[in-house]
Design a protein that fits this description.
This protein is of the alpha+beta class. The protein has 18 helices and 19 strands. The protein folds into two domains: about 150 residues, Succinate dehydrogenase/fumarate reductase flavoprotein, catalytic domain (Flavocytochrome C3, Chain A, domain 1); about 300 residues, FAD/NAD(P)-binding domain, CATH 3.50.50.60. About 35% of the residues lie in helices and about 15% in strands. Strands 3, 4, 8, 9, 10, 11 and 19 form a seven-stranded mixed beta sheet that branches. Strands 13, 14, 15, 16 and 17 form a five-stranded antiparallel beta sheet that branches. The chain has a three-stranded antiparallel beta sheet with strand order 5-7-6. The protein binds (2E)-2-methylbut-2-enedioic acid (MEZ).
């Protein structure tokens, strides 16, 4: 590491403003390490969110004119896609399917892989299609950990209360109940598959706090938790020889004569050739939407996060829940520009680094929930003018050297090596220098509405992972997403497999795309056609 830092020293170019502010941060460090800022009251938080959080910027949203959520607001970028047109026509020939399977899983991230393993366990034939490669997903990008109440001073009930409050009391209780009660078993399962969780010498799992947690229940694999979990799940899928069709996107769902899900039209991402996959049940595990860059925010998301599942599900008749609420992770990298928007894990704050403004002052408790922390940073930079300017933006300091002061030298290297490496690539030694951060688009809190069995409003269409809404209410706590992909991924896999063996599953007869015309007619009547072909599959960074 020291070698990399020496080589890269020349890369970083701090402005005079940054250097001066950094001196103030260094000068106040010893005092700030011991300073315990108070928590905000509920009233203060409400006011802060209403004024500064992007979810409350009314002109950034549009009211849907068609579909199950007609009359509700969603981000305008998403509205254009939800009210877009299909890549295929309703008379597309479905009579000679290229694939035929019991369970079709769309998406190759953590939820899709967990679903595939359990569907395979349940004896169904299962296949994953993914527009990139298995593992190219937000799961891979998650850093700080996975929550589970498995310590003697904790319980699923306490976990429930933390998450329910953190989500503004809006979570669907039956989904959140499932999440927290099945969490300990989910972590045990991952451990048994080979995930290398951080443990003490006697094998006890090391757990830490996250924002909004009242107990230390974050289990981590250093700050590579998502990558480690995805590595393990991917190995398991491949070892079981579950078919994975990569570089192949789902562009439309196929229904049967009863309106139940019965497969998908796929598109080869290289040749643009359309293919047909017939299935008895379908699981949407397509992930999030960060690459839509709502309100012009940078994102911590992987390249393929373009809301595909929301579009496919909505056109086929699924209902969305809380699609107007997004998570802006408070600490996206604001400098250097090469990693603008990349995730700086919340674990950095849970290990003791504090957020500091341009004057070297602590301006909030480091472990407020994410929506409150993001709004606080935006206020500090905009309304209070206490941000630090860079060539392409503004940010506040996250005073990382506090971690080694608090826990002893070597802690950063041992507990957050990915952060040390990411900034080290640009000559920034986070053991000695603070880093600049600003909120980055991280997660869609809302998504497709499901039952506790993971079924959507469309029969035989299941959903799991970030594409789902309602589990976390209107704000998710750190570590509850890696958890939900496992809990709901496994449930979706099992339930879709079991359904595929019953008379209730699609008969695979009279496959149809007539819902495309029905939706198109609704759009026409409402004068709401955006004209965009959706899903878009990949972000467009050129004009
Ligand atoms: O749950 C998350 O979003 C997560 C673990 C992110 C992080 O800060 O590391």
């Amino acid at each position: 590491m020291t070698e990399i830092l020496k080589r890269k020293e020349a890369v970083k170019t701090y402005t005079e403003e940054m250097k001066k502010s950094m001196e103030k941060v260094g000068g106040n460090r010893q005092k700030n390490v011991g300073f315990e800022p108070g928590r905000m009251t509920a009233g203060e938080k409400e006011k802060l969110l209403a004024t500064y959080h992007p979810d409350y910027m009314e002109n950034e949203f549009e009211i849907l004119k068609v579909g199950k959520n007609k009359g509700e607001k969603v981000p305008k970028e998403l509205a254009a896609l939800l009210q877009g047109k299909s890549a295929v026509k309703s008379d597309f020939d479905l009579s000679r399917p290229d694939y035929d399977t019991d369970v079709l899983i769309i998406g190759g991230g953590g939820a899709g892989a967990a679903a595939a393993i359990e569907a395979d366990n349940a004896g169904a034939s299962v296949m994953i299609v993914t527009k990139l490669r298995i593992g190219d997903a937000n799961t891979m990008m998650a850093e700080g950990g996975i929550q589970a109440a498995d310590k003697p001073n904790d319980s699923p009930a306490v976990h429930f209360l933390d998450a329910y409050g953190g989500g503004h009391f809006a979570a669907k209780k039956e989904l959140l109940y499932k999440l927290v009660t099945e969490a300990p078993e989910a972590v045990k399962w991952l451990n048994s598959l080979g995930v290398e969780f951080d443990k003490t010498d006697d094998g006890t799992m090391i757990t830490t706090h996250g924002g909004g947690t009242s107990r230390k229940r974050m289990h981590a694999a250093k700050d590579y938790s998502g990558a480690e979990i995805m590595r393990t799940l991917r190995d398991e899928v491949l070892n079981r020889k579950i078919p994975v069709v990569d570089f192949t996107a789902a562009v439309e769902l196929i229904l049967d004569e009863n309106g139940s899900a019965a497969g998908a039209v796929l598109m080869n991402m290289e040749t643009r050739e359309f293919l047909v996959a017939k299935a008895k049940t379908v699981i949407l595990a397509t992930g999030g939407a960060g690459r839509l860059h709502y309100q012009g925010f940078p994102t911590s998301n992987h390249y393929g996060a373009t809301a595909d599942g929301l579009i496919l599900g909505y056109r086929a008749g699924a209902k969305l829940l809380y699609a107007d609420t997004l998570q802006y992770h408070p600490t996206g990298a604001a400098f250097p520009v090469q990693i603008f928007g990349a995730l700086v894990t919340e674990k950095v704050r849970s290990l003791g680094a504090k957020l500091i403004n341009s004057e070297g002052e602590v301006f909030m408790h480091p472990l407020e929930t994410r929506d409150v922390a993001a709004a606080s940073i935006i206020r500090e930079c905009n309304a209070r003018n206490k941000g630090v300017h860079t060539v392409n933006g503004v940010g506040v300091w996250l005073d990382t050297p506090m971690i080694d002061i608090k826990h002893g030298e070597g802690t950063i290297e041992k507990r957050i090596p990915a952060m040390l490496r990411m900034f080290g690539e640009y000559g920034i030694d986070i053991r000695k220098e603070p880093i600049l951060v600003y909120p980055t688009l991280h997660y869609q809190n809302g998504g497709i509405d499901i039952t506790p069995e993971c079924e959507t409003a469309v029969k035989n269409l299941f959903a799991a992972g970030e594409v789902v809404g309602g589990i976390h209410g209107r704000n998710r706590l750190m570590g509850n997403s890696l958890l939900d992909i496992i809990v709901f991924g496994r449930n979706a896999g099992r339930n879709a497999a079991n359904r595929s063996k019953t008379g209730e599953s699609a008969k695979n007869e009279n496959l149809s795309l007539s819902h495309i015309d029905a939706f198109e007619n609704e759009l026409k009547k409402a004068g709401a056609q955006s004209g965009i072909t959706s899903p878009v599959l990949l972000p467009k960074y050129t004009k």
